[in-house]
């Protein structure tokens, strides 16, 4: 019983700290009063009833989906190749480790220059951020395949296609799903700053727009929405992983 | 349950128990390990259970993989049902030390795994379902068809692995220390089960083991592998009537004979 209540206690404590901090800040700079929980909740309820916020959310989620799909389409084949071919792995590992450590946002100016303003550079940044955990987890999954499964496939004279589709891909799905979970976490973090340049909708845009409108309660409400959606996405990825394992 | 003999079986029965598997002058070498074994010649006749006994690391598993067509020998040749073997034969099946079931498939799908692969003999859906059901029933797992491997005990998982091999109706079953990861009681059950089902399925078995008692209780013939590089050092025909537990003197005598040979082989 206590176990169920503890997370709520944590959230409540955070809300109290938030109220206290906003109150203290409000005493110094009066405009900070609109940061506090009361106005934020009011703004949130207002926004939820309108259409604007939902459109921004829908657009952001659509970008997440597109970025993730591109990352999967690139990351899984490259990961399988890395796991299966020592030659490919030795050739590409330093490159991948190098590229992985570059914050995707550093590509932003170049992405906008090459791909133009609009959705394309955002997709690029999200996919670029998400491809590494998927690629690396896929490769790790291939490396951890039970060698007897491959022996079994060979004893059945399995074709390459059969081995790939019936043994290797299902055998690494748990690892891929782990990669997807990590990727969603990264995408969600990169999304907001990526939407702050060159697009005219989405949660990142909404944050900047609220600032320009001096609608600080809207800004705080958007932060709550971003946190809540991120939590839901992670939860969904986790339960997908659990269901696959039949544990 | 007695399966009816297929037409091909009847024709082959008419011949004089021809060898299912025949190997001549096999050697295997690999960079780094040198020559693992050489001069290995052996035959497994139809419905015969042959145990390949030898100490750890002497190359038994590698020999098994060569005989199964999964690896190429440096010299020598293998033939299966009279045909030279270039790749794994559809009428052979493997059982490993670990069950190695596919965790994302239900038990019935694990047992039927691969039967529909392109290079497997064509069979109707109904026929395959029948083979799967018969194999599951034979290993005593009826009613657990929908269970996932994570929900099976170690012994049950190894039964499922045996069923997966039986579903292929193998002419020859290759088993590499299939019971050595099981506890003593389960192992004894599985040894009895193996003999029972391969007799009913009219399959021959090549059983790799380092357990002398297992070889004596299960096999019709025992091959001792030893030396460096490895070779077949000695052979025993086991004509003790089954159940062999009822003939302790004969079992003990054979055991001592094998132990003596082992001592020589390891010199
Ligand atoms: N293709 C290969 N490449 C490298 N090493 C190999 C290869 N094949 C066999 N070996 C080595 O040869 C040795 C004997 O192998 P093998 O597994 O056939 O012996 P075994 O008798 O089955 O041993 P165990 O009783 O431990 O199962 C091992 O040390 C193994 O690492
Ligand atoms: Mg071995």
TrEMBL record, chain A:
InterPro entries: MetI-like, MetI-like_sf. It is a multi-pass membrane protein. Residues 57-237 form the ABC transmembrane type-1 domain. One of its GO terms (cellular component) is plasma membrane. CDD domains: TM_PBP2 (cd06261). PROSITE patterns: ABC_TM1. It comes from the Bacteria. It is found in: Cell membrane. Keywords: Cell membrane, Membrane, Transmembrane, Transmembrane helix, Transport. GO terms for biological process: alkanesulfonate transmembrane transport; cellular response to sulfur starvation. Its main location: membrane. The chain crosses the membrane at residues 64-86, 98-117, 123-143, 214-233. Belongs to the binding-protein-dependent transport system permease family. This is ABC transporter permease. It comes from Zoogloea dura.
TrEMBL record, chain B:
InterPro entries: AAA+_ATPase (IPR003593), ABC_transporter-like_ATP-bd (IPR003439), ABC_transporter-like_CS (IPR017871), ABC_transporter_ATP-bind (IPR050166), P-loop_NTPase (IPR027417). Residues 21-252 form the ABC transporter domain. Keywords: ATP-binding, Cell membrane, Membrane, Nucleotide-binding, Transport. One of its GO terms (molecular function) is ATP hydrolysis activity. It holds the Pfam family ABC_tran. PROSITE patterns: ABC_TRANSPORTER_1, ABC_TRANSPORTER_2. Transmembrane segments: none annotated. The keyword ATP-binding applies. SMART domains: AAA. Belongs to the ABC transporter superfamily. This is ABC transporter ATP-binding protein. It comes from Zoogloea dura.
């Amino acid at each position: 019983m206590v176990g169920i209540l503890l997370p709520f206690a944590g959230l409540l404590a955070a809300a109290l700290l938030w109220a206290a901090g906003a109150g203290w800040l409000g005493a110094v700079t009066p405009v900070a009063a609109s940061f506090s929980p009361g106005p934020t909740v009011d703004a949130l309820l207002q926004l939820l009833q309108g259409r604007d916020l939902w459109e921004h959310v829908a657009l952001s989620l659509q970008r997440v989906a597109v970025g993730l799909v591109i990352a999967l389409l690139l990351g899984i084949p490259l990961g399988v190749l890395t796991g299966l071919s020592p030659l490919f792995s030795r050739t590409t590992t330093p490159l991948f480790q190098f590229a992985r450590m570059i914050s995707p946002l550093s590509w932003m100016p170049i992405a906008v220059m090459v791909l133009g303003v609009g959705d394309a550079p955002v997709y690029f940044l999200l996919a670029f951020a998400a491809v590494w955990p998927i690629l690396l987890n896929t490769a790790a999954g291939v490396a951890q395949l039970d060698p007897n499964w491959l022996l079994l496939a060979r004893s059945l004279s399995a074709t390459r296609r059969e081995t790939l589709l019936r043994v290797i891909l299902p055998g690494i799905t748990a690892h891929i799903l782990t990669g997807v979970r990590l990727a969603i976490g990264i995408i969600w973090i990169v999304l907001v700053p990526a939407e702050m340049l060159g697009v005219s909708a989405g949660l990142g845009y909404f944050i900047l727009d609220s600032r320009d409108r001096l609608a600080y309660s809207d800004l705080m409400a958007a932060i709550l929405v971003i946190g809540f959606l991120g939590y839901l996405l992670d939860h969904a990825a986790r339960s997908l992983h659990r269901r696959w394992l039949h544990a | 349950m007695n399966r009816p003999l297929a037409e091909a079986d009847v024709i082959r029965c008419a011949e004089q128990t021809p060898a299912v598997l025949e190997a001549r002058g096999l050697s295997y070498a690999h960079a780094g390990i040198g020559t693992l074994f050489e001069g290995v010649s052996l035959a497994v006749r139809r419905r015969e259970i042959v145990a390949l006994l030898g100490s750890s690391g002497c190359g038994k598993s590698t020999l098994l993989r060569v005989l199964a067509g999964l690896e190429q020998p440096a010299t020598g040749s293998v033939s299966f049902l009279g045909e030279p073997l270039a790749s794994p034969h559809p009428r052979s099946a493997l059982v490993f030390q670990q069950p190695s079931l596919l965790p994302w498939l239900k038990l019935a799908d694990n047992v039927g795994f691969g039967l529909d692969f392109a290079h497997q003999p064509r069979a109707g859906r109904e026929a395959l379902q029948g083979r799967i059901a018969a194999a599951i029933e034979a290993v005593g797992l009826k009613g657990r068809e929908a269970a996932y491997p994570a929900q099976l005990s170690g012994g049950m998982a190894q039964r499922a692995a045996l069923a997966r091999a039986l579903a292929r109706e193998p002419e020859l079953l290759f088993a590499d220390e299939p019971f050595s990861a099981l506890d003593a009681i389960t192992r004894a059950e599985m040894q009895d089960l193996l003999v029972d089902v391969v007799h009913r399925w009219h399959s021959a078995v090549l059983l790799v083991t380092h357990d002398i008692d297992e070889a004596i209780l299960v096999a019709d013939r025992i091959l001792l592998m030893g030396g460096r590089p490895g070779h077949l050092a000695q052979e025993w025909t086991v004509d003790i009537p089954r159940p062999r537990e009822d003939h302790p003197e004969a079992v003990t005598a054979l055991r001592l004979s094998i132990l003596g040979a082992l001592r020589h082989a390891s010199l």
